[in-house]
Design brief:
The chain is of the alpha+beta class. The protein has seven helices and 25 strands. Strands 20-17-23-24-25 form a five-stranded mixed beta sheet, with no helix packed on it. Strands 3-2-5-7 form a four-stranded antiparallel beta sheet, with no helix packed on it. Strands 12-11-14-15 form a four-stranded antiparallel beta sheet, with no helix packed on it.
Length: 490
């Protein structure tokens, strides 16, 4: 998504009106309380958003706007909705931000928001819903009521699959599954059947796919069932079976004109028969991830062959969900790479950049320290040669032994003795300085070595900038020797 704006100031406006002194004081106290609460909720929303808790952040921003309708809050509401994948709500919030902000929105901010809108509009579609016979019905989208027919406006939805349902008193519910591409407008008409002397229905849901569903001993389909099972009122037997699972049976009472909902949770047989047993192993890029197979926590092991829904969750990361086909090969292995949520990714990249910068700083410190130490060692070596030559000369003067015709001090002359003594003191000071510089040089060697080790550890074991370079989750399905390889990206 395009670069986001950073609008983190809550602009508050006070409306004055002529009131008495006591009323004005009371009104100002109440207004200040509302401002303080709105400001606090806004700040809390920013904090929660940066922590990756988008649902809680949305609640705080929404409440802040209810308390004090400042247009900047609408931008944050749009930002959070976009992060949650609710693109229609994000478009509405951004459009209201531009409309209510008016001239107070700068040209740069307006251009950036319009670019965001252009991107988001490519991710939403519209569904025109009508009900045959002009029946006034309640329209539901994904099970949530969105209005009554006839709808004044088409439904705005994110691209993908959606379930539309119409319900009316005296009629059987009508359901339609529809897939909408980004920027597409789809028209559907739902037809309601009168419930008078009409059959009832059973909506069956099972946690496992490809399960055979039977009604009173007769197979009616395999899961997932997109439509309810139409049948006569009365008591009926529902059986759900799949090889490798313990089948379930349940009595369901059907009422005329109504759909009875029932759900089953199948568990693998213990043990799973060898002829329908496969082995599944799941490797996840992130530690402490929760792996669910058909809705239950999963650990690597034997599972029934066939199709399974594999879901991987970890706080701060996008949810990973896909159908996985397990056959009777020695091993089916799924390698899943989770993509972090935007806030977590940005936080990780900031930390990785900081560690990388620290590693380079430590490396620079190591190079500088070792270079200075090397220079000091070289300088100290020449000074040590100087001290050693002077020391030998002084010793020869004290011993009265010349070397190569060297002129010796006359030790009977007080001035000569004083001069020799001063030379001795100066040479002793020089060796003290040499020792001090040597200690400093070795200290620099220690600092440089420690900095080099720290830089190496940070570069080798620290967070990598490339770790979350991919924007989307990905997985690789690796099957056994008789299978091939399949790459999945979404």
């Amino acid at each position: 998504m395009a670069r986001t704006l950073h609008l983190t100031l809550l602009i508050l406006f006070a409306c004055a009106r002529p009131v008495g002194a006591e009323e004005a004081e009371h009104g100002n106290d109440e207004e200040e309380r509302v401002r303080a609460e709105a400001r606090g909720r806004f700040d809390r929303g920013v904090e929660l958003f940066n922590l990756g808790d988008h649902e809680a952040a949305l609640a705080e921003f929404t409440r802040a706007y209810e308390l004090l309708p400042a247009h900047v809050v609408l931008f944050n509401i749009g930002q959070v909705n976009a992060g949650l994948g609710d693109y229609p709500a994000a478009v509405v919030a951004y459009e209201r931000f531009l409309s209510e902000g008016g001239d107070s929105v700068s040209d740069e901010q307006r251009q950036q928001v319009e670019r965001l809108l252009e991107t988001l509009r490519g991710r939403i579609g519209h569904i025109h819903v009508s009900v045959a016979g002009d029946v006034e019905a309640t329209i539901l989208l994904e099970g949530a009521e969105v209005g009554r027919s006839p709808l004044a406006e088409p439904l705005v939805v994110r691209s993908g699959a959606h379930r539309i349902e119409a319900r009316a008193e005296g009629y059987l519910p009508a359901t339609r599954d529809v897939t909408v591409a980004g920027g597409e407008t789809v028209r559907i008409e739902l037809e309601l059947s009168s419930s008078v002397e009409a059959p009832g229905g059973i909506q069956v849901s099972v946690n496992v796919v490809d399960v055979t569903v039977s009604l009173d001993g007769e197979v009616v389909g395999t899961t997932p069932l997109r439509e309810h099972i139409s049948t006569q009122p009365g008591t009926h037997l529902i059986d759900v079976t799949r090889p490798g699972y313990d089948g379930l049976r349940r009595e369901v009472n059907v009422v005329a004109g109504r759909v009875t909902r029932t759900s089953f949770e199948l568990r693998p047989s213990d043990p799973i028969p060898n002829d329908v047993a496969g082995r599944l192993e799941v490797a996840v890029s992130e530690d402490d991830a929760e792996v669910l197979l058909d809705g239950y926590l999963f650990r690597d092991g034997t599972v029934p062959v066939g199709t399974h829904r594999l879901e991987i969750r970890r706080e701060g990361f996008e949810r990973w969900s896909e159908l996985v086909e397990v056959d009777d090969s020695p091993l089916t292995r799924v390698v899943a790479t989770l993509a972090p949520a935007r806030a977590r990714r940005e936080q990780y990249l900031r930390r990785a950049s900081g560690v990388r910068a620290g590693a380079y700083a430590a490396l620079a410190t190591a190079v500088a320290s070792l270079a200075v130490a090397a220079g000091l060692f070289a300088w100290n070596g020449s000074r040590y040669d100087q001290w050693q030559a002077t020391d030998e000369s002084i010793r020869r003067n004290y011993d009265g032994v010349s070397s190569d015709g060297e002129d010796l001090f006359d030790l009977s002359d007080p001035d000569a003795v004083a001069s020799l003594w001063r030379a001795t003191i100066a040479n002793n000071n020089l060796i003290d300085q040499i020792h001090t510089v040597a200690r400093a040089s070795w200290a620099l060697v220690g600092i440089g070595s420690a900095a080099a080790v720290a830089a190496t550890l940070m570069l080798v074991f620290g967070p990598r900038l490339s770790r979350y370079s991919r924007a989307r989750s990905a997985a690789t399905l690796v099957v056994g020797p008789r299978g091939g390889g399949l790459s999945i990206a979404w």
